[in-house]
Input
Amino acid sequence: MRLIGASMSSPITAVRVAAVAAAALLPLAAGAAEPPNLAPAKARVTAYYASGAWDRDVRARLAAARAYVDARVRAGARKPAVVLDIDDTSLSDYGYEKAHDYGYDARSYDADVNAERFPAIAPTLAFVRHVEAEHVAVFFVTGRRAPELRVTHLNLVRAGYPPYAGLFLRPVSDHTGSVIPFKSHARAEIQGRGYTVLESIGDQWSDLRGGHAERTTKLPNPMYLIP
Output
């Protein structure tokens, strides 16, 4: 769960702030066990990335996704497509998270987005390049807000991602407590254009729930939770 010490001035923060606030308000039952200490939990997250275990897990899960897409393409899937989340699925926020002790500040986060400090996640980039070579359409569906369309496009392009079929950003007017309705509606819209969504890939369960994909792939992200 992301710890936040920021105002709600940025639309990026709204869902993350709501998630933390809701967790903070949960009552502890009488005699409940003390939660795990945060310091060793952060150390385990750092070790997970530094050891290469996170990278190995990502590669293994994307290899399975690639095998499924390849099989469906060989089977003649009509207008095949894949849908990917962006942050910590296609672009890595890990450098920001570690530099901020796994906390979150809207102003500094937005500054890093605008400065294009989030590099491509190499296994995801390789996956995208592979499926595009197989003539599979690639769509990005992100919880970033609509005013960030241009900078998000530049983030992807300058990180090395090839031209894609579509980019969906969450409307500023969407104040629901979860990204699931927005993301599932975006996948439904892609299907409505005649595409067969073979894979939906994300680092949050909320990236994947709501249907409108044949298969889902959850990438590991122990740093924060988005409902």
Summary: Strands lie at 3-4, 80-84, 103-104, 137-145, 166-170, 196-202, 215-218.
